[in-house]
Amino acid sequence: MSSRMWPRLIRRLRQRRTTLIVFLIIIFVCQFLLWYRRKEKSVNLENNFIRYKLAITCYLNGFKNVDSACFCYRSHGNQKDYIDQRGIHVVVGHYIGDSVDSLKIPNITKDVINQNLFNPLPFEGKNGEPVVIHPKDFYKMQQLYQINRFNLMASDKIPLNRSLPDVRKKKCISRYANLGNLPKTSIIIVFHNEAWSTLLRTVHSVINRSPKELLEEIILVDDNSEREFLKNSLDDYVKNLSVPTRVLRSNERIGLIKARLLGANDAKGEVLTFLDAHCECTIGWLEPLLEVVGKNATRIVAPVIDIINDNTFSYTRSFELHWGAFNWDLHFRWLTLNGRLLKERRDNIVEPFRTPAMAGGLFSMNRDYFFKLGSYDDQMRIWGGENLELSFRAWQCGGSIEIAPCSHVGHLFRKSSPYTFPGGVGDILYGNLARVALVWMDQWAEFYFKFNPEAARLRYKQQVRSRLALREKLQCKSFEWYLENVWPEHFFPTDDRFFGRIVHVGTKKCIIRPAAKGSYGQPSGNAVLHSCIPRPMLSQMFVMTKNGVIMTDESVCLDAPERDMQQKTPKVKIMACSGRERQKWKYDEQTKVILHVPSEMCLQATTDDDTLIIAACTKNLDQQWILEPVPWK
Q: Which residues pair with 271 in a beta bridge?
């Protein structure tokens, strides 16, 4: 072979080697892509199966249409769905106090009801994740659901010491890292026919996530439960807990109020901490509560109440910047803080803040102060209204109610109650609220009775002389003082406010509060007209303040865009009161015009669909309104 052939051969070999390397790289990349696609498909199939099961679980657990089932899946399949576009958690748990279904347990024997089916799996529900029930168990799951009105099968799969996320803000961790001496507390938990798993998960969450040196004891108060497993088995179980725990029992059904009194009278701790029997405490929950009470014995403090879903037992962090109040029917409500209060809280997000009322299920207060203040009204029956009664009494008699944003406790929220109410739900709830109004609300009691005939029917059956004597003994302030000083943003009528209907002159129709609910459970929607109802109805009653805010029940206000945000004829809405200028109006009695102050445009009714807009002021009939007063007391 000539010398000239060698370089040529070497070049060919090099080309073939390069080609081989490129070919091998292509084969490797193709193999990797095929493997990755198979893996992705497998993961997607698994995720889709989980999503399918979760959606079906939601559907069968009481969401009897596709939209509701999909909402349930979106809400509980991914907890990030609870965050709005601004990144703010918008979920707020609601106690269901408006109505209670009668207990119906179809095709379930007494043996099944009394059977403890607790059979935990090691990692079910870990870190607050949802539990998914296998489709083959759906029928049994539905049956068991009726016993406690939550997914008992899911609960019984979750260990008593399941892990939960640390939902505190980072500043909370440093804020409560090095505290001085805190008072010891007695934990009081009342239960009636509670599930074994939810009751003892509450107890274990207290023990596992509380400094032992702060726990004086745990007192379980049995309100005459009928379940066999809540008797000797429970007594034996609590004897072995690392914190002194005992069970007090009532031989008759006495209700939450009297049962809590039973526990409080037996408690030894300096502080009483009341919890419901279906809660889960998170890390760092106790220290913020005890610090508040330890600094001032007249301060009553509640945690932020997170949500344990009744279908999947997923744990969702609740919105912190809200406070407790109540509507015209005296039903407890969570309301958003308005602009002024949000501004105050912005640089102070970890400190406790005042609230007009508390939900009542979970709170701490000094034991001596509890009894000095009059404990609970022991003439109130079973459950309902005791939270408002204690809230009014605390504020009007020298104390305060607060929320500690660094304390988070999960609460299982149900859509209906499984409990029986001896004597009937209506008489008990309205009777309790009648007592609250008669003792603490002064002239606003007449407002409540005027629009709540069920409560008015029971007002004269209430013996309140001893509670009125307590109010006098404690030298308590008036309800007017409470509204002016504790809750100046309130939407109740007063002597210096307009209260009544807003009637459109041209159509003789009235503005009505929307029935649809917004992000926080408050009414929200377009402002519209509706035929005026002859008998005054709360849905057509509005208040106009001296500052020009037109508001109604549930703390919602007439709202319109400001000039730089508006279209030619922007629609007017009724939405959560914000304290912003866009909710300011001015009424001219001469021209009968309602002026939107920031835009300098007038409130006008449309002729086609009865919706309201703001438009350039013309003083024509479409823009004329009568503020028709309605006596409120």
A: 185, 366
Helices (H) and strands (E) in the chain, counts: 18, 25
Question: What is the DSSP code (8-state) at residue 229?
Answer: G
pLDDT exceeds 90 at position 390: yes
* Assessment of whether the complete model's pTM goes beyond 0.85: no
Contact partners, residue 469, CB within 8 Å, separation at least 6: none
CATH class as words, domain 170-412: alpha beta
More confident residue, 30 or 579: 579
Are 366 and 297 spatial neighbours (Cβ–Cβ below 8 Å)?
yes
Specify the CATH number of the domain 425-486.
1.10.8.460
Q: Where are the domains of the chain?
A: 170-412, 425-486, 498-629
Alpha-helix residue ranges (DSSP H) falling in 61-117 = 66-77, 110-113
Q: What is the pLDDT of residues 240-269, one digit of tens each?
A: 999 999 999 999 999 999 999 999 999 999
- What are the C-alpha distances in Å from 73 to residues 85, 303, 327? 19, 27, 31
Helix (H) or strand (E) run with residue 322 in it = strand 322-326
- Which positions ≥6 away from 425 have C-beta within 8 Å? 99, 100
Q: Is the pLDDT of residue 84 over 60?
A: no
Q: Which of 551, 559, 558, 563 is nearest to 598 (CA)?
A: 563
Q: Does domain 498-629 have CATH number 2.60.40.10?
A: no
The H or E element spanning position 215 is strand 215-222
3-class secondary-structure state, position 326? strand
